[in-house]
Amino acid sequence: MKVVFLGATQGMGRALARLMAERGDELFLLGRRLDVLAGQAADLRIRGASTEVGVAACDLEQPDGFAAALDAAAATLGRFDAVVVTAGLFGTQEALEQDAAFRRRVLTVDFTNTVEFCEQARVKLLEMGGGVLCVFSSVAGDRARRPVVLYGAAKAGLSHYLDGLDVRYRSHGLRTVLVKPGFVRTGMTEGLKEPPFAVDPPAAAAAALRAIDRGSPVAYVPSIWRVIMLAVKCLPRWVRRRADF
Ligand SMILES: NC(=O)c1ccc[n+]([C@@H]2O[C@H](COP(=O)([O-])OP(=O)(O)OC[C@H]3O[C@@H](n4cnc5c(N)ncnc54)[C@H](OP(=O)(O)O)[C@@H]3O)[C@@H](O)[C@H]2O)c1
Prior knowledge:
Layout: E1 2-6, H1 11-22, E2 26-31, H2 34-47, E3 54-57, H3 66-77, E4 82-85, H4 93-98, H5 100-127, E5 131-136, H6 149-169, E6 174-181, H7 201-214, E7 218-221, H8 224-234, H9 237-240
Parallel strand pairs: 1-2, 1-4, 2-3, 4-5, 5-6, 6-7
Helix pairs in contact: 1-2, 1-7, 5-6
The protein binds NADP nicotinamide-adenine-dinucleotide phosphate.
């Protein structure tokens, strides 16, 4: 596959990009830190990426740069098969409630600007005849819960958008893959209390790659979270008003 990747510098994105490189996929990396991207590109080439791994600047806080970033990927890869977005920000409910500037950043990056990036990627993929748009949302977007009201709201909007793309453009050749991780041990979750069923990035990445290869519209990572969230969705409101998970 030829894959454009936003978020391959850390965590699940880095693990997923490594798996793709190891099987010989061709990759083009987008991100906000060009020096880190360059190091990552060299590492992926050594791991097996089938050609030189190109990089271009793309900051989810700078939507004016999205078009140039996707154009740079197309200029290097030609027609690409997939766009993967693992980039995102997290803040605890307390931090987001207390800091208005941080709250605006997280909501803008995780919803408004990710959607804008995906809109531009969608247009490019459809112009090329179709392909996969894989985006990492979260189980936090499935149902409002006390510890993740604001982050969950952004991810709920993102999940809704991907779901909408699937029903609108599947017949045109766009295959959306919405990945919903549970708790994965990355920099994003460092210092947080670990719930049951936590996994490391390689396990989450392997599950996401299976979903991409199958073209699954929704993938819970790990899959046990599908059952957990089904149960959470059934909880009555009075329980959710008290529950701290
Ligand atoms: N970890 C979990 O338990 C968990 C659970 C549910 C959902 N998720 C979601 O899964 C995705 C990946 O999470 P992760 O834990 O692997 O995260 P991570 O290790 O913190 O990595 C986040 C990635 O996002 C990039 N990024 C952040 N802000 C950016 C910006 N403004 N522009 C471009 N790139 C930016 C980072 O790039 P830099 O290297 O430049 O900082 C990094 O590559 C996220 O969308 C997250 O919300 C994670």
